[in-house]
Amino acid sequence: MIALWIVLGVVALLLLWGVVSYNRFVSQKNLIRDAFANIDTELRRRYDLIPNLVETVRGYAAHEKETLENVTQARAAAAASTGSPAEQSAAEGPFVAALRQLFAVAENYPQLRANENFLALQQELAVTEDRIQTSRRFYNANVRDYNRRVQSVPSNIIAKMFTFTEEEFFEIEEAMRETMDRAPDVGFTQGGESPAGGEAPATPEPPAGGAAGGPAAEPPQA
Q1: pLDDT band for position 142 (cuts 50, 70, 90)
Q2: Which of 34, 49, 101, 205 is the most exposed place for a label (fewest CB within 10 A)?
Q3: d(CA 37, CA 133)
């Protein structure tokens, strides 16, 4: 009789562990889904900024037609991507590369870089990029924890029983992640000229004891 109770107790514990493990898998899946939704929200926010950015650049660099078209087309392709995280990450690559080229072009137009609308858009893009990277790190951390449980014993038993499979990471190449972090320097100096509205060079002070270039004062007569 005691042996039967022991067996029943072990079975009950196993069932309880299985329920807890299953519910944790479900919670992790939901957390991963929500985390990726946050990434998608920030990506959409960045897509929405691009048309205004392109039009602002066009006002100062209309002949940079190829660069502007590349940004527009890459944005459209990235925005249309609705596949897995790995597929969306791959679609972001050309788009971010096109943005990097656009800002490289902007370096050649000081008046554009001084434009208030361009500066505001650039700042918004930089903030959005920070949010994307924060959301990406949060998402990948949750995927890493979930995948570890899918692979590890004994939780992998529940994973196999209920077909919990590994999730994909959302990755962007390091060089591309630096695109918005490396904001162009907004300056007004070109060709060695003094900045507009800047201070005039300091005038050398005259030597002590007399006016500049004049003879030294004679000592008073006794």
Answers
A1: very high
A2: 205
A3: 13
Q: 152: number of CA atoms within 13 Å, CB side?
A: 9
Domains in the chain (CATH in brackets) are 2-177 (1.20.1440.20)
Instruction: Give the mean model confidence (pLDDT) for residues 131-144.
Output: 95
User: Is cis: bond before 154, omega within 30 of 0?
Assistant: yes
**Residues 141, 146: Cα–Cα separation, whole Å:** 9
Residues shown for the chain: 222
154's CB contacts (< 8 A; 6+ apart) are none
Of 133, 126, 130, 36, residue with least CA distance to 88: 36
> Would you tell me how many other CB atoms lie within 10 Å of the CB of residue 171?
15
Cα separation, 183 vs 134, whole angstroms: 18
Gap between the Cα atoms of 190 and 212, Å rounded:
33
pLDDT in tens, 164-182: 999 999 987 543 344 444 4
Say what the pTM is.
Answer: 0.74
Tell me the C-alpha distance between 29 and 149, whole Å: 12
The amino acid that residue 84 corresponds to is S
Kindly state the tokens that stand for 177.
């992640």
Strand, helix or coil for residue 2? helix
